[in-house]
Amino acid sequence: MAILTSHRSRFEGEETVELRVRTEQDTRLRRRLLRLPWKLYLSIVVLALMIVAPNVLLLRLNINNAPRVYLPVDAPSVRIDDRLRETFPSDQVLLMLFEGVALYSDGFLEALDGLARKLEGNPLIDKVMTVTTQDHIGGSDDGFSVTPLVDVEALENTRPAQRRQQVLRDRFARRSLVAGDGSALALLVIPQEIDESLTRLSLEDWILAQVEAARLTGYLQATAGQITVDVAQLRSMLRDNMTFIPATVVIGLLLIWWLFQRWIAVFLGGIAIGVIVSSTVAFYVLFDQPFNMISSIIPPLLSALTVATLVHLYNALHLASRRGYVGEERVRWALREIRRPALFTTLTTMAGLGSLGLSPIPPIRSFGLISAAGVVLIYLIVIVVLPNLFARFDFGPWPTRRSGMGAMDWLVKRLFHLGVRRPLPVVLVTLGLLLAATPQVFNVVVETNLQEFFLPGHPVRQSTDRVDEKLAGTTSLDVVFWTPREGGLKSPLRLAQIRAFQVWVEKLPQVDKSISHADFIEEMNWGFHAEDVRYRQVPTDPRLISQYLLVYDGDNLFDFVDREYRTAHVSLNLNVHSANRISEVMEQIRAYLGEHIDDGMSWEIAGFGRLFADEEDLLVQGQIYSLWGALALIFVLMLVQWRSLGAALLCMIPNLSPILLIFVVMGFFGIWLDMATAMIASVAVGIAVDDTIHVYHGFIQRVREGISPVVAIARTYNQAGRAVVTTTVILCAQFAILISSEFVPTAHFGLLTSVGLLAALFFDLTLLPALLVLIYGWRERPMRSRKPLEI
Questions:
Q1: Please, how many CA atoms are within 13 Å of residue 38, restricted to the half-sphere of its CB?
Q2: Is the pLDDT reported for residue 123 higher than 80?
Q3: Which ranges of 360-491 does DSSP label H, i.e. alpha helix?
Q4: Which domains does the chain have, with CATH numbers?
Q5: What is the pLDDT of residue 788?
């Protein structure tokens, strides 16, 4: 018995019917498997491995958004902070603010002290500060004494009103552990050096669980500090990933179905997206890089880019189906049409993303290089692997009606006809509008404010505002002093210089409070002299200072000076959160110290505030390097592809305009150039140039075949135009969904990337054909022997 099958095909350009004869033995599973081409087996094995292997690696993914990951390990601010933290506690803290009635009652203070003692037992916590653990320096019969500010073991000896007065009078507790009006008490948790965000998340959850166990949740009105902000960013990042990764995949697959209505296209597209995204993220494990806020953009980005590449493949298969091709012939024809432009679009997208590798900020550099590697995977999976599966299983015709392709064709014709029929007005109007909007670029502000990463109603912003209102500001900055000899920071001269600096710096509107070891010595002198306010100053006798320090038996002093009195730091609480405002304070401090501190004592600025402000300088430097690097690499690739300087310049014009428009939108709407938006220009130009390559490649191929330029433009847009529009619509649909994020950097990335891609589409469909008509339109003779473009 034999089985006869037939299907439409083409042979040497002619419509044919292909007949296949199979015996009963041929239909057996073993024979069918043996007769399958080796490329099909290899493709299936590759996909299977890429489904399994990355998921094993992802179990070891290091999710870390801690502030230090955003700076190079050899950055001056990192080195000085490392040196400071070798001796003194971290300034990466978590602060809890308690408000309510009876804050100074026995029950509340005992519960608060019990909570503090419980937290201190956690090995991840270095110290816990509150009114029951804070040292208080006061007068005594034989000098001064160091006692707990509120002694929970002697509560029966005091009344709540007396405790409130005692706390408010304390120099160190005021606006640090107690509100200026006494209406709130704070508990400050100082952890060990924790550089992993997941550990910080677990620690915060554990701390809040202990607050609930102590029955103080009703009093807890706010949590603030660097730990809180970092954990909130991590929560937002994880929530966005869980929401937007599946959402972008579903949107992409729905659009594929709407456009092509082929289940095999949807099924293989879903597999491609999954293996590409998971394999790319697995590179973070292979290269031991932290996955952070910047990295979280990779999954939706690569999902969108994969769908865009799939659309180019599916569009070519659709056209091949309309021409009557099936099976291997259909795939072969489709690849012949798109393989070369797909290769160059891969290279240009790699250039745009890879240029971010020039950024000095490690997460942006890792994002650029790893996402560029992901683009390579897209090409290998979509252009190399998937076609083998289509060649084996795709024999049915692709629908020509009732799909979304007709709507795309209508939009393409409307727009490119405008550029072809009125080329000069289109060019002049586009140029005029861009020139008119250019001044908005100068309104773009380079600024980062972690509080602004959250919407005004977010608990982190509300808590921080509450803490800033009740206590000193939560932005920490340290000024470190060194002397070359042991005991140098006991010197009355050095202490007077430090205190003079504190008096000056506290007059700055951005500074709420300062504390140094000189404050402790003034308190000892005050207590020693029966708490006479005239003696709340640094003694002029060095022997008296040494005697005070010998008698002192507390612990808090050595949070500000080492035991050899060589190194000390002044801890500042700033009420500003933006990098530029912090930088302004640092510049004023540098100017003062440079003028008033003599050569016997060196100084430097450290702490979270400096780390954060220094990121801003690196951000500007990285933006310049990456954007110019992207443009240069893409231009070189254009030059290699077209082998013509004029053609390369022509293809750059429609892709420079969207970059300008992105910055115009940022300037007009007051969107800052920050950690998230700094990547958008390079990402957008790397993606947008893909469509230009597909259009120009189709156009120049037809011109080389002797077709007149105007006809070549029309045929190119009739074939490639739908894919150009489709890919942009899909990309924008997937990026636009990010706008709904409650995390502002993610929303801005989605908005501005969508704006850039839509602008690139508009310029590709109007400005590019207008330029081609103006340059080529006067040429009527065939161009077979000419170069692609001669200007």
A1: 0
A2: yes
A3: 362-379, 386-393, 405-421, 423-437, 459-470
A4: 1-35 (no CATH), 94-224 (no CATH), 231-452+613-776 (1.20.1640.10), 484-600 (no CATH)
A5: 44
